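User: Here's a structure from my thesis project, written as structure tokens. My advisor, Dr. K., wants to see whether a designed sequence matches the one we expressed. Can you design one independently, without my sequence as a hint?
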């Protein structure tokens, strides 16, 4: 009974009327200002920023009350540094009308510094010291790291590496790359493991011997017609032999005598090594 009396009381209906008025006022003010808040009816053609430099982009967008943000930057040899090559949203065109509201952001992709590539010199054909090699590489704009390796020839460049991969003369690397020079220690006479050259061709054996600081005395037992044949000949005997002579160590700078011919087949385990060495004979 009290609840029913309250519903029909003057106090209740006065509060109901006041609540309705308050809701109407809030709704009216919200709707009347919504257009201003959302810039309803105001639209700007999306400008074409492609091909502009960053300072030109800023000047263009200030007058339009628009902002920009660099979303990405990429290397390119075809465009200058700082040029806009992509944008989102796309520019307004007759074929593709596109509009944006004031104070919105356009996302752009620009060109960052261009990669400059330099050719790696040939340090292996002729004997080159680490100091000369280091100077030449630094003059080309490379960073240089040095690694010493047991070898009979002191300071001789034995190889180059980039990111733990063998570098060959003529390869191109970005300027500023870190190139590692591997050079000889000059520790003539220091013991190293004696390789088993049998089953290798002469080309691979010479590379292996040069890498670890051994000399090879090569005897051919076939009719060798040209340089190609001499490289293709496969080693079938050596002295000292780690198996027959029970000798596993040999001094750096020592001579190993090898016998090779064209009738002995190349051991299949060296096929991949041949490919990896870019075997051209």
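Assistant: Designed independently from the structure alone:
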């Amino acid at each position: 009974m009290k609840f029913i009396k309250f519903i029909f009381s003057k106090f209740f209906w006065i509060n109901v009327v006041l609540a309705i008025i308050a809701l109407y006022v809030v709704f009216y003010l919200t709707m009347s200002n919504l257009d201003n808040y959302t810039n309803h009816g105001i639209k700007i053609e999306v400008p074409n920023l492609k091909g502009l430099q960053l300072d030109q982009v800023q000047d263009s967008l200030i007058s339009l009350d628009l902002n920009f943000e660099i979303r990405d930057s990429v290397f390119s040899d075809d465009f200058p540094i700082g040029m806009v090559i992509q944008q989102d949203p796309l520019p307004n065109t007759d074929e593709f009308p596109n509009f944006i509201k004031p104070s919105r952001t356009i996302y752009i992709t620009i060109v960052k510094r261009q990669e400059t590539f330099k050719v790696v010199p040939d340090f292996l054909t002729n004997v080159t010291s680490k100091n000369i090699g280091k100077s030449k590489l630094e003059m080309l704009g490379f960073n240089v790291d040095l690694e010493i390796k047991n070898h009979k020839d002191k300071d001789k460049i034995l190889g180059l590496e980039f990111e733990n991969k063998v570098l060959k003369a003529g390869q191109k690397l970005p300027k500023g790359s870190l190139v590692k020079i591997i050079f000889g220690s000059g520790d003539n006479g220091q013991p190293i493991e004696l390789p088993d050259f049998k089953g290798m061709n002469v080309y691979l054996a010479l590379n292996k011997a040069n890498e670890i600081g051994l000399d090879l005395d090569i005897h051919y037992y076939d009719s060798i017609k040209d340089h190609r044949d001499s490289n293709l000949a496969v080693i079938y005997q050596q002295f000292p032999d780690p198996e027959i002579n029970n000798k596993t160590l040999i001094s750096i700078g020592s001579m190993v005598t090898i016998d090779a011919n064209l009738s002995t087949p190349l051991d299949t385990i060296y096929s991949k090594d041949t490919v990896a060495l870019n075997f051209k004979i």
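When you compare it with your expressed construct, this may help: The chain has three domains: 44-111, 117-184, 191-276.
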